[in-house]
Amino acid sequence: xxxxxxxxxxxxxxxxxxxxxxxxxxxxxxxxxxxxxxxxxxxxxxxxxxxxxxxxxxxxxxxxxxxxxxxxxxxxxxxxxxxxxxxxxxxxxxxxxxxxxxxxxxxxxxxxxxxxxxxxxxxxxxxxxxxxxxxxxxxxxxxxxxxxxxxxxxxxxxxxxxxxxxxxxxxxxxxxxxxxxxxxxxxxxxxxxxxxxxxxxxxxxxxxxxxxxxxxxxxxxxxxxxxxxxxxxxxxxxxxxxxxxxxxxxxxxxxxxxxxxxxxxxxxxxxxxxxxxxxxxxxxxxxxxxxxxxxxxxxxxxxxxxxxxxxxxxxxxxxxxxxxxxxxxxxxxxxxxxxxxxxxxxxxxxxxxxxxxxxxxxxxxxxxxxxxxxxxxxxxxxxxxxxxxxxxxxxxxxxxxxxxxxxxxxxxxxxxxxxxxxxxxxxxxxxxxxxxxxxxxxxxxxxxxxxxxxxxxxxxxxxx
Amino acid sequence: xxxxxxxxxxxxxxxxxxxxxxxxxxxxxxxxxxxxxxxxxxxxxxxxxxxxxxxxxxxxxxxxxxxxxxxxxxxxxxxxxxxxxxxxxxxxxxxxxxxxxxxxxxxxxxxxxxxxxxxxxxxxxxxxxxxxxxxxxxxxxxxxxxxxxxxxxxxxxxxxxxxxxxxxxxxxxxxxxxxxxxxxxxxxxxxxxxxxxxxxxxxxxxxxxxxxxxxxxxxxxxxxxxxxxxxxxxxxxxxxxxxxxxxxxxxxxxxxxxxxxxxxxxxxxxxxxxxxxxxxxxxxxxxxxxxxxxxxxxxxxxxxxxxxxxxxxxxxxxxxxxxxxxxxxxxxxxxxxxxxxxxxxxxxxxxxxxxxxxxxxxxxxxxxxxxxxxxxxxxxxxxxxxxxxxxxxxxxxxxxxxxxxxxxxxxxxxxxxxxxxxxxxxxxxxxxxxxxxxxxxxxxxxxxxxxxxxxxxxxxxxxxxxxxxxxxxxxxxxxxxxxxxxxxxxxxxxxxxxxxxxxxxxxxxxxxxxxxxxxxxxxxxxxxxxxxxxxxxxxxxxxxxxxxxxxxxxxxxxxxxxxxxxxxxxxxxxxxxxxxxxxxxxxxxxxxxxxxxxxxxxxxxxxxxxxxxxxxxxxxxxxxxxxxxxxxxxxxxxxxxxxxxxxxxxxxxxxxxxxxxxxxxxxxxxxxxxxxxxxxxxxxxxxxxxxxxxxxxxxxxxxxxxxxxxxxxxxxxxxxxxxxxxxxxxxxxxxxxxxxxxxxxxxxxxxxxxxxxxxxxxxxxxxxxxxxxxxxxxxxxxxxxxxxxxxxxxxxxxxxxxxxxxxxxxxxxxxxxxxxxxxxxxxxxxxxxxxxxxxxxxxxxxxxxxxxxxxxxxxxxxxxxxxxxxxxxxxxxxxxxxxxxxxxxxxxxxxxxxxxxxxxxxxxxxxxxxxxxxxxxxxxxxxxxxxxxxxxxxxxxxxxxxxxxxxxxxxxxxxxxxxxxxxxxxxxxxxxxxxxxxxxxxxxxxxxxx
Lengths: 464, 994
Description:
- The structure holds 2 protein chains of 2 kinds.
- By secondary structure, chain A is an all-alpha fold.
- Chain A has a single domain, classed as Formate dehydrogenase/DMSO reductase fold, CATH 1.20.1630.
- Chain A has helices spanning 6-9, 25-36, 43-69, 84-95, 97-108, 118-138, 165-198, 202-212, 219-252, 264-290, 299-330, 333-344, 348-360, 368-371, 374-401, 416-439, 445-451, 456-463.
- The two termini of chain A are 28 Å apart.
- Chain B is globular and about 90 Å long.
- Chain B has 30 helices and 39 strands.
- Chain B has a 7-stranded mixed β-sheet with strand order 5-4-16-15-14-6-7, with helices on both faces. A 7-stranded mixed β-sheet of chain B has the order 25-19-24-21-23-22-26. A 4-stranded parallel β-sheet of chain B has the order 11-10-9-12.
- The chains are: A mainly alpha, B alpha/beta.
- Chains A and B meet through helix 7 of A and strand 30, helix 25, helix 26 and strand 34 of B.
């Protein structure tokens, strides 16, 4: 949601605060490259990776059980045909938003403070999208036939139904995943070359060497690199908006009261950015502590992100208000009941918890003191993670549970497998993230160098 | 393939172990006998004798060669896994009538409480798959009920008793004949004084004649009949009123005003389809009848009433007396209490003298029946709306007394041989008699039964009974009409009929049921016997066999003194279960999973109590209470039942089976355990104690009010006649034809549509089971129902309106609406649900990947999803019940009502062959066919002359949720009611505040 950015671009003058003083090209490169290459792997890494891998095994076990028994192991039923599956899909996709937003939009807007967080935010995007992708693939009744959603020439002469928002989803999500992956990878090439050059072990040299694709750092390379990343940023920018817009169409194009609303696309995009930044904060706060990266991810970054959280929370709150207002203003008995049911029905606790998490709690970000308190920020980010999960629960489950005919109303409850799949996907995310931290430069080394005072002259020339 | 084991060894088979083992079987694993299953020594020895299978490894050369030869010969047969292991033969001369793929229909009868109701059974290549009503039969008129529809599933039940056993050992039929012969030799000298026959209600002239013949030879032998839902009160009532045991036959179509004294004539009983048809024929606005119902527990009849009042059993009696006094029945005016409602009813009945009808239910004491008869006589209704005929049953009508006498004799050891034909007396007889215990004193106990049930366990000889669709027999309807039952298939498990078992007691023990029944009718049919026999079989009834009306004269009778006493505290009411009846359908999965019409409960029974009673006891739905009556205790979950009379607790019997089969066991609680012979239907003075436990119940509907929406539109006939437009204004109008961006779809040659008349629908569920049977719909089990995954394509929604204590009840069948603008079609990503040119919303199972988006987007929520592999692909015998014209759906696909597309296509083939358009009425959907009320009509809505178009053209027609722009092809006709002008404003006195 680019409209939310201008206020933050005014924070630009405080450049000094986005990197601790005293670094030179060499010391900076040494410090950042050492995380992947030479520094001793911290104990906490092993702990985190173990948690991730164990939970990934839980995910695999759940998937195996699912494929053998059927989607009935989840809590879905007839009024509520989608439960944790689609809700977690939307949740993960939302989380996957911040990466591209930080990389692409902030790059285009020339926000250098993004340089220290964009790499792992992008990685987070890729991993979140991977987790998200699992759900629509596995929530179907016959997952082995999912490829029928892809238009391909076949002997049946069948095409998918291009009117279905699920088909739009297929395109939107795969495009987003592809572009994000390319953007992430292309952006990493110079750093991979750095690692290749500094690696001692043969396997590392070969691995990074292959991945660096022969990068030699020549002016021509840099020139092409800059063009490519600008182009990719240009491509990715509309995707940030389109992907969650399309995801919102899954609901907005349906006729279920609580889904069928025109506010959904902007409201979903804002929600996604909100969720994405919350997740970046959730990850950045422990990482900078464990790896001693306070010099690179400074209070300035955290402060900026908190401000974005606040801004997007206001947009999301506006969305909730409009939903409630439109339900009342429409005069439609189903819409009115939908709103009434959210606030007072069997899932009212979910709704009020959501209002607390996404509307009330973020208001504390108005206070500078709280924005600069690391524990407060971390708690805030966790609250938002929960709040955005609840938001999808309210939209998907609560709307479906009571639609048009009172006779078919029914409740939904996640089963143990719903939870194991959810925890498992979190495990997969953690596992991938820890592998990334250990093996790849989690902070963009060359982009950090650009921020150094040493680089100023060249940087200016580059830009001109 | 089954072989008769002639082993005389009697090591006994551990049935319990066999059950456990069977429970563990998966996939294509068969077993031939219990011995094989358990691999007993007997079986190994038998194998050795029959097939020379070596007992131990010592195989000599000769044997080895023989065995090798045999295995090589068999290898070809068993090479392909789908081939049957038995030898199969192709037709050398194909049977004349059987065309592969073409169904044949045979007329036979479905027995309910012993009475016949004509049915037509549909058979493919000798395999019956569907049962429907017989248009010609007076008790059916083409309609059917859930039991007739579901009876087909009982036939293919793998849990049926499959062999003839003596003390658990498989025996040949000849062994039984020998045993019977021995018994007869012992009994003959003492004139059969030790021989007793126990049957259910028998209306079969042949069986009656057979038993009579045995009794003629052994005059001291006795025949007792016990039907847990017996109608002895009906006969006692006519005896009280007229001095003779008579069967009333009602003509509801001729009655302008009907008063039901807890008679559930629209919901149950052998003549239910007939009653429904006659009754609803008078539910049209112009000629509308009026129904008053007083009852203790809500029934379908009460749900259709124009005025319904929940009353305790004692209050019903005094109410009946009041009305009787009001209509001028002599001799009772003194004792009757004054009651404004009763006065209004009496006045209404009186003003329609000769065209009114008072009906008393089977559960009412004889005095109430007698009062009803006296009222009908006083109103001049006899011969007009009610006539009386002789009883079709031949045993003493006082079944309970006869049964008590039998139990006494058995307990005293005076019975040496007990022959039980059908029924399940060890389970369903009154608890105080302790039939099972007394029975064990009988020296020889022979049982003919469909299942190895609670009674079989206590019997020496167990004869597997042939299902009605496998049997030659005959039976009478309530009005006496005889139907000759013909088998559609040879007994699947070499079962025997009651006729064959009784023949064993006659001079011709080997006579087949066919010959027995035929010989019974030889000389009794009019005209040439062969022609008349064939006509009777073809038509499904014997012409002119109905009983003539008997003249009646009311005698004076004493009123039951109970009428004036107040119920002491809580009264326990016993009623047959609406879906599994007296327990005989307990192993029928379709009926177990069928939502009971009033409670919408599945898989369980419960203690139904009024909200006020529950409040007083401090309990609520799903709380477990302990019911105790006369020292017997039963624990039951509570179900709060709006419209139940306060102070009455209803429990349905039939549940709590211990040996009912894999489906039946473990469901519900046994209400028979509290039922005593002196309080068969109502037991005053039950004590209820709350426990702290809860028991989860599975219901298919959680919301009971319409929430201010108008899915069911109801209006009084008077208001409708005054302003027919009133129905259209009860909901939002549909968007106009130009309110869409999409172009109109081109229409095909036909436009299929359906109209459902809520004025005539009684909510009986027959359509639900008919659809399940026609469309191979699987059952899912209690746990899945609880999770909201029931699969029936039609659901009957039940809504309440008004007060909690005496609400109005509405039923509405909801199925796929086949929307012209179907929301489900747009969202399916793979085009698995698409529209046909003729307007069908089609589901392409093979293409479905199972995203469930269509179900989410369906505003009617009529789509059903196979969350697991619900259909049984492995149990061979269960596959036989499937309709070969309908795909059996696998896991992970969506399904829903198809408007019986297979029937549409069949009609299309016929029409195209003859080069003509499909005629109106040529396509009858399964639900339409089953509906006893003819509430459902299907046809071409583009043809203005079709039945469905004419129905839709009525001003009370409306579509469900049309405001969404879905343009549903299925539409409804608003429910009409005809409240009495004298009572209308004073309805629903505010009795309790919740």
